[in-house]
Amino acid sequence: MILKYLGVDTGGTFTDFVLFDAAGLRIHKVLSTPDAPERAILQGIAEMGLDPAQLRVVHGSTVATNAALEGKGVRTLYIGNRGLKDLLTIGRQARRELYNLQPEPIAPPVPEGLCLETGGRLAADGSLIEDLTEADLQILVEAVSELKPRAVAINLLYAYLDDCFEREIEAVLPEAVFVSRSSAVLPEAGEYERGIATWLNGWVGPLVEGYIGRLQAGLPGARVSVMQSSGEAIAAQQAAHQAVRMLLSGPAGGLVGARFVAAASGHERLLSFDMGGTSTDVALLDGAPRLTREGRIGPWPVAVPMVDMHTIGAGGGSIAYLDDGGMLQVGPESAGAAPGPACYGAGGERPTVTDANLVLGRLRADAFLGGRMRLDLAAARRAVGGLAEAMGLSPEQAAEGIVRIANEHMARALRVISVQRGVDPRGFTLVSFGGAGGLHVCALAEALGMTQAMVPVQAGVLSALGMLASRPGRQLARTRLGLLKELSEDLIRRELDALAESGLQALLAEGVARAQVERRDSLDLRYRGQSYTLNLPWEGLDQMAEQFHARHQVRFGHRMEAPVELVNLRVGLQGPSPQVALKAVPAAAALAEWESIRVTGVEAEVPCYERAELLAGREIVGPALVTEQVSTSWIAPGWRCRVDGVGNLLLSQT
């Protein structure tokens, strides 16, 4: 019987653990092992003294993300229709540098020698143009035998209408080859986007499959799930063939966690930033996390549903340096987990944001990771001091410059996700999490003119907590082109039901009862002749056209007389919410004890509080430092903090 629930977030620097059982929540951190992420997970579980047979593990994996960003996927063969084998190379003919007359050539996703073409071509209405013959299949079998790929990506035209030809090709391929079919990965219109998703799924799929296999072997008896980019969990054995849906696995957990803890304080309109050791992820939440199908990983579009967020290379481990013009720069290069910032004492010598915060006194050398890891202040001062000497500044002045530049990078990212989309951030609450987020939250709120912020309970491991708060689910879609006025409501309902049933069967296989599944149907609509669509909830055929006109008016400022066209059917399925709850914090009866420390830029000594001793209702006036097991929060001058009923720190300007 499963008695314990474990959320795990594998980051670039740390691997975070949140355990929930009858005793409440318990947290843990270990340094990540990027070469084999499962090693850090198994190490953490062993250090926590947990029996795998009693665990239900939900974790966010960076295996697919790292492989894609670093170009370390497996040897993958691409199969398209005759005349279309170079589809992924041609792409959309979009130029990254519009005015550069001599742009740097971009390597194609799949080398020409690994691109094959074959028969089995359908027309846009599903009728047959060219059959797939036995000779075609034999040629493919021989090519696979000669080229020896580890994965094969099959992307035939209009396979979302009829996948029989893709299935025939899959059936003749060797069992040892990982097969990715477009009709299974992304059965939607848009041959280039569908092809990229199918190739990415094959390119990183064997790596994910191997990682999940090793993790499950190391956790005998445990039920293991993986967070998808959409913020929903999927059983590990099913995730292996859906690697492309795990590219934002960890960050999606952060958004689920942010929504979960903020709801306890009655906050729903959130601007979030997750600052870890390597990167910062920002997002806007007005209720449930928004999903997008226009995400990217590196230079490639990823059209599968994923949480709508913006990521930059700014984290606690971001390295500061002087560029060729002598200007101070921060990131995107990171010190990572090995060697890490100089203050980790593991051989790092270049100054980072974490080193700068330590030099400024905003981090305590003896309180990092709850005292389990002592920071080396002398090493941090040497690293920052070398940069300061080159700039003609003191180490403290250089450290302030490093922090200010890192803050500006993050503020710019927050503006991208809000202001540049027409959203005024001043009506939102800025929620910071990640190991480094609390040190920068006040400065970022000020930069955006925001007066409310929050450092959630368990902020340093909030993505791992979000794994526990996630629900099993699926996001399903299928293209069904046609003018609304020419379609019947009965037809649309039947096709939505058929689409939902395929997802229901997958959830039933995970042990979710049919009666526990929530379902949301929606349609992608556009005016005939348009390329882009708007997604609207399905509420019956009679209302859809007018709803689309109204939404188009709000989004683009006008409506048209053109007929409305259906493009895609979508079904979202979610299983029950997990039985995870935040423990109430007792009300403060007396002042918590605190000690004073020196912080650069503040004349008087600054009080330093242990967060575990701050009870509900306690108020703190900045400047102040709040330390905890996995993170530190800097309450800047001009800000005050109140502890709510579950331990969230609610910040407001004085």
Automatic annotation (TrEMBL):
Domain Hydantoinase/oxoprolinase N-terminal: 6-175
SUPFAM superfamilies: Actin-like ATPase domain (SSF53067)
GO molecular function, one term: 5-oxoprolinase (ATP-hydrolyzing) activity
Example GO biological process: glutathione metabolic process
Organism superkingdom: Bacteria
Residue ranges of every copy of the Hydantoinase A/oxoprolinase domain listed in the record: 194-471
N-terminal signal peptide: none
An example Gene Ontology CC term for this record: cytosol
Pfam families: Hydant_A_N, Hydantoinase_A
Record PANTHER family: 5-OXOPROLINASE RELATED, HYPOTHETICAL 5-OXOPROLINASE (EUROFUNG)-RELATED
Protein name, UniProt field: Hydantoinase/oxoprolinase family protein
Origin species: Candidatus Endoriftia persephonae
Biological classification of the source: Bacteria, Pseudomonadati, Pseudomonadota, Gammaproteobacteria, Chromatiales
